[in-house]
Write a structure and sequence with these properties.
It is built from 15 helices and 18 strands. The protein is α+β, with helices and mostly antiparallel strands. A hairpin with a 2-residue loop joins strand 3 and strand 4. This is DUF4919 domain-containing protein.
């Protein structure tokens, strides 16, 4: 079987056997293994048309899973109504910024090395805008196809794309743009779809979907081509993280998410039954899209200034407002995925340094409670459906941009600051319809707590206005929480 062989490649890449030490350098050995793996992967691409014209199996699709079916509180409850709240420094309004320029200049030291490809003849170029990032690729005539396709006809399209050398001409340009602009897998996926939608807007839907599938497969992703009972094509996309509120299906135990043509159909259209071709169980179908964010894409800069705080504790600075449209419809993941992500290190360093300077001389518990009440009072509360019309957890930087936030957003923000500013170990805590934080304390305080691996964690809720560490919302005193180790 080939599957164990693939696994062996991946394991051996990180190891240096004695035989390799004797005969070749580690880099040469690693390169050889990667080349062997690439050849194995290439065999699937070379034969994909045969799978497309063979048997297509029927599968059922399922409506997206809701991460939490219990509604969040409409208003943030107040712990001590009789106590006068601290005076808040009102957040500055969102700054109006200049239009996005057509191009962005990438510093020479950050530009990717040209890919080692055979020289191509002079050819027309097609440029398009991707969230202010200018992407240019060769303009390729990919041919045509009927507006209604039988399943086996997609094999003809795959061969047509290979004959037109789409994989050799377009894919390297997309790879270079992804590297130059520091795009993660999700943004590469979006870039490919935007490219096809803009360059081939006049083409029929089956051609656009088939072309997206062809490009994404050659970029190394596990993406399948499918068709529903009405004959409408769609993409099945494997994602590394669990994604909520999005239609999906399971194939051989793996979850695939369904994406329609972006120009003509809604993503939330009901799909109950669909067909897709069978791939060999030992085929290396590609990698799932990884939604992790470890750096910000290099979009043009638009300054958004923030000045947020309450009596005795404030933060101020700026961030790139151009990042917000990229993140606005980001797939809905588990809350801890937002907590573990890193988008703008410089923005975070500024926030951490300012808060650390203001809290460093305080006793530990007093500093925790002061930071807690800063998050409680510095931001207005609103549920995502009220503010955005859909569920939208924030990354750390987004809470500095939007005027309101909910319990999940506050918890991600507060959890990060507890560890980075005060060095306090903490966990994200989830009740039905609510998220908060619990902090590990060596000293005993009055209030709600639980034991985790011999350490006591106390509820510290940034949405329970005026509460101190140890105070839990009354509605959740008898609920069993789920805790996720955060920092």
């Amino acid at each position: 079987m080939k599957k164990p062989l693939v696994f062996l490649f991946l394991v051996m890449i990180g190891m240096m056997p004695v035989s390799a030490q004797n005969n070749e350098s580690f880099q040469d050995y690693r390169k050889r293994l990667l080349n062997d793996y690439a050849d194995f992967r290439q065999s699937l691409l070379d034969n994909y048309d045969k799978y497309l014209e063979s048997i297509w199996r029927e599968y059922d699709a399922f409506r997206g899973v809701q991460r939490d079916t219990v509604p969040k509180p409409v208003k943030a409850p107040v712990a001590h109504p009789d106590i006068e709240p601290p005076v808040r420094k009102e957040p500055d309004p969102i700054v109006e910024v200049s239009p996005v320029p057509d191009t962005i200049v990438i510093p020479a030291e950050e530009r990717p090395e040209p890919l080692p490809k055979a020289p191509l003849p002079a050819q027309k170029r097609y440029g398009f805008d991707f969230y202010g990032m200018y992407v240019e690729v060769p303009k390729v005539d990919v041919g045509a196809c009927p507006s209604q396709m039988n399943t086996g006809d997609y094999a003809v399209l795959w061969r047509q794309f290979r004959q037109k050398e789409v994989n050799r001409r377009v894919v390297p340009a997309l790879q270079q743009a992804a590297a130059a602009y520091r795009l993660n897998d999700w943004f590469v996926f979006q870039m490919v779809r935007d490219y096809v939608a803009s360059c081939y807007a006049s083409s029929v839907v089956p051609l656009r979907i088939a072309l997206e599938h062809f490009l994404l497969c050659h970029l190394g992703y596990n993406v399948r081509l499918a068709q529903d009972k009405a004959g409408r094509p769609m993409l099945l996309v494997a994602l590394k993280q669990m994604v909520y509120a999005h239609t999906y299906a399971k194939i051989n135990g793996q979850r695939f998410y369904i994406y329609r043509d972006s120009l003509t159909e809604r993503e939330d259209m009901d799909v109950l039954t669909f067909y897709t071709c069978e791939l060999p169980v030992d085929a290396e179908a590609g990698r799932p899209l990884d939604l992790s964010l470890v750096q910000a894409p290099l979009v043009p800069y638009k300054a958004h200034h923030y000045h947020i705080g309450v009596d005795g504790l404030t933060i101020h600075g700026e961030l790139n407002a151009n990042l917000m449209p990229l993140l606005y419809r980001y797939p809905q993941m588990d809350v801890e995925c937002y907590a573990y992500s890193m988008l703008c290190p410089d923005v975070r360093k500024t926030v951490v340094a300012q808060l650390r300077e203001q809290l460093e001389d305080l006793p530990r518990l007093q500093a925790i409670n002061m930071l807690l009440q800063f998050v409680q009072y510095a931001f207005d509360y609103a549920t995502d459906p009220k503010q955005h019309g859909f569920e939208k957890p924030y990354f750390f930087e987004e809470i500095l941009f939007y005027p309101k936030c909910d319990c999940e957003d506050r918890s991600v923000f507060y959890s990060y600051l507890l560890w980075e500013v005060l060095g306090v170990e903490n966990q994200l805590v989830f009740f039905p319809g609510h998220a908060c934080v619990a902090v590990r304390l060596d000293e005993s305080v009055e209030g709600t707590s639980y034991l985790y691996k011999g350490s006591r964690f106390y509820i510290s809720d940034p949405t329970f206005i005026g509460a101190v560490t140890g105070e839990c919302m009354p509605d959740y005193l008898h609920e069993h929480p789920d805790a996720v180790l955060s920092r």
